Amino acid sequence: MGPGEDTPRLSLGLDIGGTNITGLVIDGDDRVCASVTLPTRHGEQGLRESVAAVADAVASAVGTTPATFATVGVGLPGIVDQASGDVSHAVNLGIDQTNIPALLADVFTAPVVAENDVKATALGIAHVMDDVSDLTYLNIGTGVAVAVIVGGRLVRGVSNGAGEIGHFSVDAQGEWCACGQRGCLETVAGGRGLWKRLAAIGADIETLDSDTRPEAVHERETFIDALCQVAALIAVAYDPAVIALGGGVVHAAWIHPALVASLRERATGSPLLTSLAIADRLRGVPDEVPAGALGAAIVGRCSWSGA
Ligand SMILES: [Zn+2]
Fold it and tell me: What is the enclosing helix (H) or strand (E) of 52?
């Protein structure tokens, strides 16, 4: 703290999901001071009110008010233009198009910076993993996406669409996807398609590994096969030190070991796959800190400092 600065410089990160919003405060040394999670209300007005409620709660947990946060970063689903704060296709929030800084202008004094939630989460994970500079975060949720950090910088692409691999087709004869293609990765491994197929055969993701019925075995093998393909694609495309696997679909305890075993089996007999050692790069998302909200706080602070 410099001369004259008698209050700590606090940064707020908000991870906005379709169900909950997590607010997290870090100090100038990146220590987590507090975090609070409350339900998300949908639509622009609902979102503004629920963000204000989280900001109030987490601010009071550190003995202050939302007006004192030095920086504010927001991670949310959809295509996010980080420079302007424009968000589109945030369907999980009941919002087609909005501008986040404008929407939250009367909640905070500090400028608000928005980022796609998967990209913000990747920054949070990289930070928890001792600032690993080359990391790809593979998010298997309702949809499927990756966020790529190369040399310590997020890859956003020219139109902020980098990492939207859910609509990469892995099966030309597969199910039709809402995007107009067949066999998109998202139809195979994403929650929306997977839950529907599992429900149709009376199966459950938590117990899918011990379900010996042929239709359940088929679902399990197809799912793990898709994850193996995307892990291999990530390894050859970006050569990251870490492939972090997270998202609502991959919480079941059997998935990580099954994926590691399958990747090792595929590498047998292939000097290339053996040398890539993809299984050794695979990590879960650290659960000691809410990585999405931490990443959002980092987004807000880095943007403000011009980094
Ligand atoms: Zn698609």
Answer: helix 43-61
